[in-house]
Structure formats: structure tokens, C-alpha cells
């Protein structure tokens, strides 16, 4: 606790301000964006007539005026590339209008593309469809890039920065990249509720994939075992009237003797 006392006078609207210096607690770890701390400030004001008023406010305190983050998945498919959004907020979580410098690098840290955009807007690559027109696109053709890991780095002139590593794949790929994960299971976005697609792959030579379809009442409707060997495949799951109100698909893989 850091008690602060003083005598203040309100303005014509009855407002007053009291500066408080908050330091990082000894031994505490930042909890918000790895750079900020939460504080609860309790204020007690006593008027000239002896009337007492109390208030509590939660504040965030950090070493930088703003925080930068990205909404981005760990696995991205070229055919369903999501919009990029660089979120820039102040310590109270309010969006800040500013520009963001971004940089795309390959697995060897070689810069492939870079640029500057406005924060808190959605952007699509050159080969994507953006409702906002060309002003909401970034000059990267992800369809032309090979399947691999990539790093997206963003920063502001005030020093806020973020970095995200993601795996770029094509739904038509037959194999995972050599540097890819030993096992991958990723559901694709579907435009209909009656169909689903799941991409499953491995870089290992001997993996068994088990698929069980269970009804909403808990009845096992079907069971299947697949053998995968250093390959990438797509499972097409379609609703059947025998499922009733719906069904749950359970997928499990036996990798190197472990389920």
C-alpha cells in the first residue's frame, strides 16, 4: 500500500485529481501483456463539512504508455487466411490511434516484407478479399510462400512490440514441412453446420489415427482407424440423419506408442 494524503479543492464541476506514484511490487511478475501490473486504488475524501465519500478504481501500471498485441492463430491455411489485426491500447485498455510497423520473416529470420499500417484495423494479404478496398490490404502474397514457419513482428515508435510465430500451410499440401510439428490436428472453418473438415498430419513414419462418432445420447455410431506415414490428409465429416440432433467426433492419435 502507498498511502497518499493531501488537501485539494474541486473545480466547478466538483472534480479533483490526486497524483499517485505507483511502483512495481517487489517480487511480483507483470500479469497484463507481460509488462503491466494491476492496482486497486481506494480513495477516501473528507469535505469541509465532515462528509466522507469513498471510491475504488482499478488501474494498470506499466513501463510503457501503450501495449501492442496481435490476433493471430498458430496454424494458418493459405485458403482461409484470416484478417490481421494489430491491437494497440493504453494502460486502461482503451484503443489508441497510431501507426504500427510490421515485418514478416521466414524461419531463418530473413525479412520477406515490411510496412507501416494504422493500428486497430483489419488487414488482408494481397490475395485476400477485403471489404474496405486496397487501403485495408498488406503487400504480402501468402499463396506464393512455401509451407513453413514464419514470424510476424510489429512495433510502434514508442517501443511497444509483439512477435508471433505461425505455421503456414496449404489445404492441398501432401506433407508437413520438415521443420513442422511431429503431429498436427486442425479444424477448418466451414460455411455450413452440416459439414466439417479436419486437417491431420505427421512427420513421423508410423502413426495411427482413431476416429469415433458418438451420438448426442452417447451411442457409438462408427469407429475407424487410419494409418499415417509422414503425410498430411483431410478428414471430411458430414452430418447423417442417423445422428439425430447431432454427434460428436472424437479423434485420437497413437504417436510413438503414446496416445
Please tell me about this protein's structure.
It is a single chain. The protein is an all-beta fold and 259 residues long. It is built from no helices and 17 strands. Strand 10 (148-155) and strand 11 form a beta hairpin. The chain starts with 35 loop residues before the first strand and ends with a strand. Mean pLDDT is 82; it is low at 129-135.
Global structural class: mainly beta
Cα(first) to Cα(last) distance is: 50 Å
Q: How many beta-strand segments?
A: 17
Compute the gyration radius: what is it? 26 Å
What characterizes the major β-sheet?
Answer: 5 strands, mixed
Question: Summed up, what is this model?
Answer:
With 259 residues, the chain is mainly β. The protein has no helices and 17 strands.
Compile the SSE list and pairings.
Layout: E1 36-46, E2 52-62, E3 66-70, E4 75-77, E5 84-90, E6 99-106, E7 111-118, E8 122-125, E9 137-138, E10 148-155, E11 161-169, E12 183-187, E13 195-202, E14 207-215, E15 220-228, E16 232-238, E17 247-255
List keywords for this structure.
259 residues, mainly beta, five-stranded mixed sheet, elongated
Amino acid at each position: 500500500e502507498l498511502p497518499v494524503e493531501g488537501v485539494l479543492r474541486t473545480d466547478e464541476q466538483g472534480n479533483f485529481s490526486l497524483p499517485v506514484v505507483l511502483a512495481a511490487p517487489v517480487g511480483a511478475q507483470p500479469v497484463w501483456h507481460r509488462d503491466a501490473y494491476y492496482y486497486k486504488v481506494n480513495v477516501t475524501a473528507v469535505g469541509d463539512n465532515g462528509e466522507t465519500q469513498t471510491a475504488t478504481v482499478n488501474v494498470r501500471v506499466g513501463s510503457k504508455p501503450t501495449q501492442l498485441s496481435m490476433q493471430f492463430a498458430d496454424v494458418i491455411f493459405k485458403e482461409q487466411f484470416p484478417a490481421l489485426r494489430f491491437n494497440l491500447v493504453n494502460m486502461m485498455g482503451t484503443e489508441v490511434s497510431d501507426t504500427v510497423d510490421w515485418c514478416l520473416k521466414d524461419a531463418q529470420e530473413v525479412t520477406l516484407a515490411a510496412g507501416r499500417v494504422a493500428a486497430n484495423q483489419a488487414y488482408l494479404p494481397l490475395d485476400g478479399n477485403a471489404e474496405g478496398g486496397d487501403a485495408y490490404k498488406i503487400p504480402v502474397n501468402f499463396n506464393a510462400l512455401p509451407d513453413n514457419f514464419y514470424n510476424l513482428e510489429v512495433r510502434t515508435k514508442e517501443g511497444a512490440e509483439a512477435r508471433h510465430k505461425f505455421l503456414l500451410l496449404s489445404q492441398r499440401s501432401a506433407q508437413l514441412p520438415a521443420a513442422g510439428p511431429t503431429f498436427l490436428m486442425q479444424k477448418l472453418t466451414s460455411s455450413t453446420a452440416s459439414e466439417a473438415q479436419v486437417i491431420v498430419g505427421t512427420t513421423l513414419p508410423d502413426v495411427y489415427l482413431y476416429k469415433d462418432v458418438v451420438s448426442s445420447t452417447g451411442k457409438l455410431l462408427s469407429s475407424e482407424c487410419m494409418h499415417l506415414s509422414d503425410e498430411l490428409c483431410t478428414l471430411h465429416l458430414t452430418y447423417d440423419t442417423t445422428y439425430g440432433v447431432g454427434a460428436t467426433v472424437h479423434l485420437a492419435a497413437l504417436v510413438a506408442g503414446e496416445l
